[in-house]
Amino acid sequence: MPKKRSGGGLSTTQQAAKFLGVAALSGVVLAGIALPAAGALGLATKGTVEGFDEIPANLKTPPLSQRTTILDSKGGLIASVYSRDRTVVPLKNISPYMQKAIVAIEDARFYEHGAIDLKGILRALNRNVQTGGTTEGASTLTQQYVKNVFVEEAGDDPDKVAQATQQTMGRKVQELKYAIQVEEELGKKKILENYLNITFFGQQAYGIEAASQRYFSKSAKDLTLEESALLAGVVQSPSRYDPVNDTAEATKRRNMVLQRMQDVGDISKAQAEKAKATPIKLKVKKPQNGCITAVSGAGFFCDYVRHVFLTDPVFGKTKEDRAKIWNRGGLTIRTTLDPQSQQSVQASIKSHVYKTDKVATAVTLVQPGTGKIMGMGQSKPYGFGTNETQYNYSVNKSMGGSNYGFPTGSTFKPFLAAAAIQGGKPATQVYPSPYEMDYPDTVRSCGKPWVNDGVPKYHLENESETEKGPYALREAMEKSVNTYFVQMLQDIGMCPVSQMTDKLGVVQGDGSKLPQNPSTLTLGSNGLSPLTMASAYAAFANRGTYCTPIAMQSVSTADGTSLPVPKTSCSQAMSPTTADTINTLLRGVVDSGTGQEAGLQNRDNAGKTGTTDARKNAWFVGYTPNMSGAVWVGSPSQSVEMERITIGGVYQDKVYGGQVPGPIWRDAMTGALNGVAAPPFNTVDIPDPPKHDERDRGRGRDRDRGDEGRPGAGGKKPGGKNPFPGITVPPNLIGGNTGGGNRGQTGGTQGP
DSSP for 700-741? Predict the structure, then answer.
């Protein structure tokens, strides 16, 4: 049964008839609600109750947009993001002073009248006639609430907002009918609660809780008389009465509210005078919105979470559906980010690479078997300023990353080895592996064979002239011998490698499949992201099972409803024996090969180094049985050759994957795994062939180069042409500038 209205027992139709009768007979309503009498069009021109009744009866109240809270895996705050900063609170959590103040100044007869206040209309008319203008309106607090509902529903669409706020008789009559409905269905206290939660208080604060936090850094339930009067006064014109920017004007308005509260008997004269004499004392809390506010350098991970929400169909069938839910907010998103791992990532980055360096680093940690992203950071902070960026170097372009990813160099070789072993090649496989050689005349692919049609033929060489075979797989992996792996590719063909990388989720930074050519499938000449590499290597740690990366554990709405979240998808990419063999091979890389500087203490670990041509990129990708991580170092624009360069305050004559990325990985993993169990790898027995003599003693190198070092496409003899048309690394991989590049928000541009 509908609740009886406080001010009289007229039915909906009777109220409408009375209102429209007054309007039709005298036109006073037009003046009373500050509308122009001349030319007023719309539903009111019908002048009948029947026309009024044609308006749809049900006001559709959209959920109020609120802030979304993004948490780490332990429940700690990462960041708050919102379209509108609002926290909905019940009336019992709003100061009684605030309740009285807003009623006194906006609608003093709120508890006495129904949806409209005819006395208020006549009073406003009389005042406006006396002043010769429209100095006083007569909309009730209920009508104002309805108008705010229209504005909220319009969202950030300027056309819809204009329509929701247009001053026409049709709109006013529509607001009236809905106000009558609201009065009958909600009652006065609920209307007041809704109004205080929906209205705008300036300074990006929507609703009384956000306003109280913004201006006074306290909860709405703790507002004093003076503070309540100040906020109640702001509502009429948040810009004019903004206490942050105009204390004098805000004080006058506050004192007007206090006087009104005295006049209606809410406070005594003594209370009013004391409050008026009290200076405004603000404790302003600046708006904290967006991933730029994320803690522990997690801004890029925060942005990745946003991209996942806006692109994954689990949150809505269309882009528009997902965006609507995100912008409405009020979500609590618990992510997979491990605070210990994230702090370790940031500490390692900070100690090894400065944000002012010519090059940058990106680090991503994932958990084998679950796909959970445990840590993600980079040396160029998330932001818009100098030496800052919004590009996430750890992820693919579709998720806010670089346009192409970054060439991976020798870190690609384990994928080739896994494909060969999975196809039956023994872990003791030997190839001649000369210091230099022409690429094979032909290499089998899934379709048309690749042909070495260069004039002269396309050529490659190892990093050092001392690197010449024959080599077995174990030693070739430890020393990262280029010619060995090209001969392996010639032996097994490219199709098994493509099939293996497909199973491991390896795609280029732009999301496309890897092209089938020897340079790509041996020397890692095409761009990949650190997240892609860390996730693929996690399959080795997980005994051959690849799991897609995930960033969320749970999502709940403002009312506590749980939403589905993207789940990891795990599949067997290779046999456990193959994975165990790779573990054994890559453990040797950190024990005695090119990755010795990355080795961890007191726990099984394995990995692979990579350094691309001209030393524009250096990588270390490694793992333990319970953590996998990828580290990239280089110039985001691929414009810096890392020779005779200072990185993190340390001079480097020549940068190798084991030399700069390796220690970053070591320190990040050490902190992330501190206190975590140290299970052993499953390994296999690989007989040791006779080692090479003293010529190869010491730390091996991992540079993937050709005759004179060409970017990304393998080598060739002077005078030859690019052996792999269409895959040369573009000169600018991410667009914008390398320090403060952004996507148009501060005038930057996005490159090709």
Answer: ---B-B-SS--SSS--B-TT---SSTT-SPPS-SS-S-TTT-
**Residue 95 in contact with residue 221, Cβ under 8 Å?**
yes
Angle at which helix 169-186 crosses helix 188-198, to 10 degrees, equals 130
Query: Long-range contacts for 589-594 (Cβ within 8 Å, ≥24 apart)?
Result: 589/477, 589/478, 590/622, 592/478, 593/477, 593/478, 593/479, 593/480, 593/699, 593/700, 594/410, 594/478, 594/479, 594/480, 594/656, 594/657, 594/658, 594/699, 594/700, 594/701, 594/702
Query: Angle formed by the axes of helices 96-106 and 247-263, to 10°?
Result: 90
- Among residues 656, 652, 577, the alpha carbon closest in space to that of 615 is found at 656
Task: Retrieve residue 646's tokens.
Answer: 């200072």
Residue entry with tokens 């990813």: 405
Distance of alpha carbon 484 from alpha carbon 17, whole angstroms:
93
Query: How far are the Cα atoms of 248, 691, 713 from residue 726, in angstroms, in the given order?
Result: 66, 40, 10
End-to-end Cα distance, the chain = 64
In three-state form (DSSP H/G/I as H, E/B as E, the rest C), the secondary structure along 40-103 is CCCHHHHCCHHHHHCCCCCCCCCCCCECEEEECCCCCEEEEECCCECCCCCHHHCCHHHHHHHH
Question: Is 28 strand, coil or helix?
Answer: helix
Q: Tell me, what amino acid is at 55?
A: I
Closest CA to 233 of 219, 249, 254, 252: 254
What is the C-alpha to C-alpha distance for residues 392 and 380, in angstroms, rounded to an integer?
9
Rounded Cα–Cα distance for residues 342 and 297 (Å) = 8
**What is the DSSP track for 323-381?**
HHHHHHB--EEEES--HHHHHHHHHHHHHH--TTSSSEEEEEEE-TTT-BEEEEEESS-
Q: How far apart are alpha carbons 94 and 196 in whole angstroms?
A: 9
pLDDT tens, residue by residue, 509-536: 999 999 999 999 999 999 999 999 999 9
Closest listed residue to residue 623, CA positions, set 586, 594, 664, 653 = 586
Between CA 698 and CA 482, with CA 428 as vertex, the angle to 5 degrees is: 50
CB 461 within 8 A of CB 705: yes
pLDDT in tens, 689-744: 766 554 444 444 565 643 323 333 333 333 334 343 333 333 333 433 333 333 33
Q: Tokens 């453990």 correspond to what residue?
A: 587
What is the number of other CB atoms lying within 10 angstroms of the CB of residue 525? 28
Is pTM beyond 0.70? Reply is yes
CA dihedral (147, 148, 151, 152) positive or negative: negative
